[in-house]
Amino acid sequence: MDLDTLPQHVDYLSSSGLLLSPEQKAALQTSLELVRKQYRLRSVYLWGKILGLNADYLVAQGVEKDELYNRKTLYCLNYMDWKLLPPATDEMITNCSVIKGRFMGNPAYEYESGDVKKMTGGGVTKDSHSVRVTERHNKDVAIIPRGAFIKTPTEDYISINRVFKGLSHSEAGKLRSYLHFTEPKELKKKSLLERAELDMSIDFLDCVEDDILKGSWSVQYDRGALVVIRSLLWPGYSFFHVPNTSKFGSMYMGLAEKNIDFPFMV
After folding, report:
1. How many CB atoms lie within 10 A of CB 138?
2. Is residue 90 part of a domain?
3. Hey, what's the signal peptide range on this chain (predicted)?
4. How many helices (H) and strands (E) in the chain?
5. Does residue 3 surpass a pLDDT of 70?
6. Bridge partners of 44?
7. Is residue 75 part of a domain?
8. Which domain covers residue 174, as residue numbers?
9. Could you give the CA distance from residue 252 to residue 49 in angstroms, rounded to a whole number?
C-alpha cells in the first residue's frame, strides 16, 4: 500500500477486515514520511501487519530505484519507531524455515528448537524470522495489475508505468490480468513461440493464471466498481483494483502462517 495514497486506499480493503483507525493512519503517514527522508527512498509501501501474541508487528518496504529488487524492509511495534531489517540471505531463509508457530511480539525473543539449534548452533532472532516471512509471502502472493509497472530496454530497472490507466471492468475480474510481483520462474520455461506473443515491456513477470496451485485465489466485485482479490494460500492477504483507474494496492494482516493444508482442501 503506497504511503502517498494510504489513507484513501486502505479503506478499499475494509470488506476484508483490513482496517486502520484515523489515528493509526496519521501516525503511519508521519513516521513513514520520516523513514523515506532518513533512508533517501523514492517510495515507501505499507506491507502489512503481523499479529503477535503480545504485540503486533507493522512491516513496511522502501524503494530506492528498482520497484521490485533490493527493497529495504522495516518494522515497528508502535506505528512510530521504525527499525531496518537485514537483507534476506539464503542461509537466513533456510534457518528460519524450520520455525513453527506465532510471532511472540517481543523483539528480543529468540526462537529455539532442536532443528534450529542443529542448523545454527543457537536460536533464530525475530529479525531473521520477519525477513523470511516477508520474502516467502511476496514470492507466493504479491500481485500487481498487468501494465502497472514497466521495464524498457533503455532502463535496467523496473519502474511505475505513468501511463497506466487501469484494467477494463471485465478484464479486472480475470486472473490472467494480474502478475506475480517477484522474480519470474514460469516465464523462463515458456517456449520462444509463447514469448513472441508477449509484450516484454510489461509481461516480464509470471502470470497469476499460470499458477501451478489452482483455486488459491478468490476474485470478487465489491460495491460494483471495485475488484478485490484474496489469497487462500496466505489468509489475510488482500489486493484491490478500481477498474479504469490507476488505483490498486494490497496489504497483509494475519498470523504470518501459510496455509500448508490448502492443496488438500481443493
Report:
1. 21
2. no
3. none
4. 6, 14
5. yes
6. 62
7. no
8. 144-256
9. 6
Asked if 81 and 31 count as a contact pair (C-beta separation under 8 A), the reply is yes
Q: What's the rounded Cα separation, in Å, for the pair 15 and 228? A: 9
159 found inside a domain? yes
What Rg value do the Cα atoms of the chain yield, rounded?
A: 19
How far apart (Å, rounded) are the C-alpha atoms in residues 195 and 193? 5
Over residues 107-138, the pLDDT tens digits come to: 677 766 544 454 444 445 555 667 778 888 99
- What percentage of the chain reaches a pLDDT higher than 90? 60
| Neighbouring residues of 158: CB distance < 8 A, sequence distance ≥ 6 | 66, 67, 68, 69, 149, 150, 151, 204
pLDDT of the residue at 189: 85
The backbone torsions φ and ψ at residue 110, rounded to the nearest 5 degrees and listed phi first, read -115, 130
Task: Indicate the length of the chain as a whole number.
Answer: 266
Residue 236 amino acid letter:
G
More confident: 85 or 229: 229
